[in-house]
Amino acid sequence: MSKNKQQPELADLQFAQVDLDRQKRCGAAEVILGMGKTPAQIRAIATVLKKAGQPVLITRTNRLAYQAVRTVLKGSVFHEQASIIAHRPAKPDSRRRICVCAAGTGDLPVAEEAAVTAGFFGNHVERCYDVGVAGLHRLVRRLDLLRSSLVIIAVAGMEGALPSVIAGLVDRPVIAVPTSVGYGANLRGITALLGMLTSCGSGVTVVNIDNGFGAAYAANQILRLVTAESRQPKAGPL
């Protein structure tokens, strides 16, 4: 039977069907979610992606997994705070400027997941940390940085107010990430999530609790469109 060329190319590992066409179809290669996978399974998937000539990003992972893949992914880096292994990141594009803001130090693991992911996809990433609403002067003094960025990722736990404040200060899309940081009534991030969803700040988009990766991926898709438009030839005079 002839192979149907309309079907996406898959690598069948039995425990995983690795999508090798995702980079062409979606603009980014398959990303490995390390959570729930054994180091051996992560290594097997990473090996397939590498053989296909694709960059490898492994999220929600740990040092044990890094020990398992480092001989396969030579030159890979384990970003411990972000819980990410990165192999062959794209070169940063200075036109694609993302600012990752974190309300407090407790939000840094999620913020770093966003920052490392955004950088892996070739964006120029600036970090703006410990700028929560408990001390607004710390945020206000970074306004120049916020306004020079094209997309802002705002990471906050507790009541989740930071994205609303930022949205009232800039003319940029704000991607809000609620975190599970906070006391009992924070409800492991549900309070921050609901606060962000009901934000009075315009232009705020919200991802799931602790989903720094999802925020960075969305920001990357926005900036891919911006840079694609800049490469389009300009129409001449009518």
Name the descriptors.
238 residues; alpha/beta; four-stranded mixed beta sheet; five-stranded parallel beta sheet; single chain; 35% helix
Layout of secondary structure:
Layout lengths: L9 E3 L4 E3 L2 H5 L5 E2 L5 H13 L4 E4 L3 H7 L7 E3 L4 E4 L5 E10 L5 H13 L2 E7 L6 H5 L2 H6 L2 E6 L5 H6 L6 E5 L11 H8 L6 E3 L5 H20 L7
Parallel strand pairs: 3-4, 7-8, 7-9, 9-10, 10-11
Antiparallel strand pairs: 1-2, 4-6, 5-6
Helix pairs in contact: 2-3, 4-9
Would you kindly provide a written description of the structure presented here, covering whatever features stand out?
- The structure is a single chain.
- With about 240 residues, the protein is of the alpha/beta class.
- The protein is about 35% helix and about 20% strand.
- The strands form three sheets. The chain has a five-stranded parallel sheet with strand order 8-7-9-10-11.
- Strand 10 (about 175-180), helix 8 and strand 11 form a beta-alpha-beta unit.
- It starts with 9 loop residues before the first strand and ends in a 7-residue tail after the last helix.
